[in-house]
Design brief:
Blueprint (H helix, E strand, L loop, with lengths): L1 H16 L7 E4 L9 E7 L5 E7 L4 H4 L1 E9 L2 E8 L5 E3 L2 E7 L2 E6 L3 E3 L14 H5 L5 H29 L13 H13 L8 H20 L8 H12 L9 H16 L6 H26 L5
Antiparallel strand pairs: 1-2, 2-5, 3-7, 4-5, 6-9, 7-8
């Protein structure tokens, strides 16, 4: 522990001991220095020297209010991208360079660079009298603006009302009204998954697919975005809606069982067996079939 502590205490001393090289060519790559502007410096070493690494050695954002990023490091040169968040002048801190020349590794610091920024100037000319700027001489403009405001508010209210009405009527839409037969689609997708044996390579994918098939089926039949909702959100939604539509009460638990089985594989890193896959598929088939029977019973006025 003592040796480790001494090592970390010596790091600042080691950094400080690096020499500052003078045979470095540093030039401004753009004349657009200034507040909130991106500009860059080009650092270039002698041709026979190759740069391995370049980094800021002692950088404090609170001192410079500027961001620095080393880019385009290639051969004996690199760019230092700079973005300043102050209008005042500042120093670009020294960079710690690691290079190799004639099979010898060198570590040194670059000199600090003083950056002069353009001051922000605001020129105001040909000012009109204050009254001319803010007074409205034509009263018709007021009424035009008022009418436009009313039309915008009416349009927004209409969109909101239509959305509420559509959303209210979307729950438990009869499957016969859908363009795609949700039962046939779900049964076919589940049957395809039943033929795929479980392995370490596909176990997670299979249970994700089972979950997606049942969620898509719920979207088709009950018309709410189940694919975008978590298991707990779907359960809470069905529980809330079952108070308004009692026939949904029978659908809550089967759906939750399917999703919990799949979530265990998806999120808990559970390694399922072929038997557990069959259990998940059986629950899914029964959920789809039970939904069909519930809708049939509802169509028949509550008679089985």
């Amino acid at each position: 522990m003592l040796r480790a502590s001494l090592f970390f205490l010596l790091i600042p001393v080691i950094l400080f001991s690096f020499s500052i090289r003078s045979n470095i060519s540093i030039r401004l790559g753009s004349n657009q220095t200034g507040f909130l502007k991106d500009f860059y410096l080009i650092y270039e070493l002698p041709k026979e020297e190759e740069i391995l690494k370049a980094s800021i050695s002692d950088y404090d954002f609170s001192k410079t209010s500027a961001l620095f990023q080393v880019t385009n490091l290639s051969g004996n040169s690199f760019f230092l991208r700079i973005k300043s968040f102050e209008t005042s002048n500042f120093n670009v801190p020294s960079l710690l360079i690691t290079s190799v020349s004639n099979s010898r590794t060198n570590e040194f610091l670059t000199p600090e660079i003083f950056i002069t920024q353009r001051p922000i100037s605001i020129l105001i000319s040909n000012l009109a009298p204050l009254e001319d700027i803010y007074s409205i001489r034509d009263g018709r403009l007021f009424w035009v603006l008022l009418i436009l405001l009313f039309l915008v508010l009416a349009l927004l209210f209409g969109i909101y009302w239509l959305g509420k009405r559509k959303k209210k009527g979307q729950l438990a839409v009869h499957p016969s009204q859908a363009q795609i037969d949700p039962y046939a689609e779900a049964f076919e997708a589940l049957a395809l998954l039943k033929r795929v044996p479980v392995s370490e390579l596909n176990q997670k994918e299979i249970f994700i697919k089972i979950s997606e098939v049942v969620r898509r089926f719920i979207e088709r039949v009950f018309r709410f975005p189940a694919l975008e909702m978590s298991t707990s959100e779907i359960a809470a939604y069905l529980k809330k809606e079952s108070k308004k539509n009692p026939f949904l009460e029978e659908m809550k638990d089967p759906a939750s069982r399917v999703f919990k089985i799949c979530d265990r594989v998806k999120y808990a890193r559970h390694h399922p067996t072929e038997e557990q896959k069959e259990d998940a598929l059986t629950e899914s088939f029964e959920f789809v079939e039970k939904t069909r029977l519930v809708f049939q019973e509802k169509d028949n006025g509550g008679q089985a």
